[in-house]
């Protein structure tokens, strides 16, 4: 059932998008902008297509993640026109459009042709979308400066977008609770995946990304992509990174659960969660996101020292010598929105001490970010330290004891507000 509080925010969202897009078009000298939803290409020498989820700017306006071969026309001072591909077809069903307020501020038309619509007097026309579906369509294809300006319109979320993201968090958290219960009941990675899907009511192909579900040492592979059918003989840990797409908007939540007989690992999970909550509290207008990442490394250093995994070094020295990067190799997070790793996050390159950081901006009200520190036991990263001069500071016996637990990541979705932050994930727990 639709959330009517969210539906009430739709028209204002469309009006704001019209203002933002019209400014971008005026700045770059375009009279019309045609946006393609895209289409899933077919696999080579096969009659099966890849999974389709839609082009970001099209979803930004419509939220229709599964609508292929459709087009949206934006012109200053005029109602946006949406052409929905709805062929007469006995092989497949056409998506059903519910009557919602946003349809009153958009001119919606149905067409049976997959190609671009013919436009009357479009003036200087830009067309953005997957180049494969733009072939042969007149107009300027994906002009770089305009595409960058369009992506910038997604940096500051409207109230409608924030509530969609909040709802996506609520649904995903139901899945995370079911996943935790399945793990504690002794289920396999595959069984945990099924429990998550059942609780969220979302097929995996509809999810914003492939769920990461790792038991034991699999939790140490950051984007672990397989599901074992059988549970391990001794379930020591579960790391699940999984979200939900709601009206095009993505949640991205990670939780780690220790097995019932893992007191040391349980203590590490609790310690990382305390650090993660402190980092979430740093989210505020005017804060450099890179500073949150660097504060995370100091927090990881303190946790390594307190747990006895590393000894004999000050926290700052642990960071300077790269020891914390072996335990926490990724960035602290990223923008979140229509895409899980939403666009326009890196106007400047990542700093040398944070090469995988996906967001390098100063935070402003309306931005939505993830905060996701981790602490992992990854052999390929730890072995150089254990075999080098840093080995004198590492507790090899404790590392060996915990490495079969894989690792820990805890991730929340946080809105930057005028006064500080709103944690969309924690408010739903």
How would you describe this structure to a colleague?
- The protein is α+β, with helices and mostly antiparallel strands.
- It contains 13 helices and 16 strands.
- The chain has two domains: 4-152, Creatinase/prolidase N-terminal domain (Creatine Amidinohydrolase, Chain A, domain 1, 3-Layer(aba) Sandwich); 159-428, Creatinase/methionine aminopeptidase superfamily (Creatine Amidinohydrolase, Alpha-Beta Complex).
- The chain has helices at residues 4-8, 10-27, 56-62, 131-134, 144-152, 159-184, 189-200, 263-282, 289-307, 315-320, 323-327, 379-386, 396-402, and strands at residues 32-36, 71-74, 81-85, 107-111, 125-128, 140-141, 212-215, 237-242, 245-246, 249-250, 253-258, 368-371, 374-376, 407-409, 412-416, 421-423.
- It has a six-stranded mixed sheet. It has a three-stranded antiparallel sheet with strand order 7-8-11.
- Strand 9 and strand 10 (249-250) form a beta hairpin.
- Helix 6 crosses helix 7 and helix 8 packs antiparallel against helix 9.
- The two termini are 21 Å apart.
